[in-house]
Amino acid sequence: MDPLPEDSSIDATTTPAPEEKNFADYILILPLSDIPPIYIYLSKPAVEFLEVERYSDFVRRSRQGKYEADHIPSRAAVEAYLLKLDPTLKGAQLRKYSDEVAAIIVPKEVHQKISETYGKRNAVRIELDSRNLRAAADSNIDAIKPALKECGATEEQIEAARVKIHKFNSDMGLY
To answer: What gap in Å lies between CA 113 and CA 141, rounded to an integer?
Structure first.
């Protein structure tokens, strides 16, 4: 099967138009001078319910329109903690460090409607959570646990995710 469109001239278009990707996701192959270049898109596997990784590991992975990666503990609490350790940290550097915090894949509705740290709900918790990130992570997990069970997660799966979250964050030196 030939993945290239019949018309591969410079002004040819492919429909439907592919979604925009980062060039780091492609390999360019130049076979021979009379054959047009071939672009191979490298896709990462889609996320899975209750998958735990560093938040940065979920970047550019399909969430299938139904999942979100939830920082555990919240990005804002982690950044407040990091700023206490090093007040000279600035925007991009701070964000880079907070992207290494553990995250769990949960249904969009659970993250947006139930998570205690989603959006503006986090405003009153940031300072308190930044003082004890492990306790904040446990609180975050406990808040979404009943909804995760309604979505089909078992107690054992949720607790295994909790252990992995604590391991990632401990390895990062957050507690």
So the answer is: 14
Q: Which amino acid appears at position 119 of this protein?
A: G
Q: How far apart are CA 103 and CA 65, in angstroms?
A: 17
C-alpha to C-alpha distance for 155 and 160, rounded to whole angstroms: 9
User: Who's near 62: CB < 8 A, 6+ residues apart?
Assistant: 43, 44, 46, 47
Name residue 52's beta-bridge partners.
104
Mean pLDDT for the chain overall: 87
Give the tens place of pLDDT for each residue, 41-64: 667 889 999 999 999 999 989 999
- CA–CA gap between residue 51 and residue 8 (Å, rounded): 40
- Strand-pairing partners, residue 38, are 29
Classified as helix, coil or strand, 69 is: strand
pTM above 0.90, yes or no: no
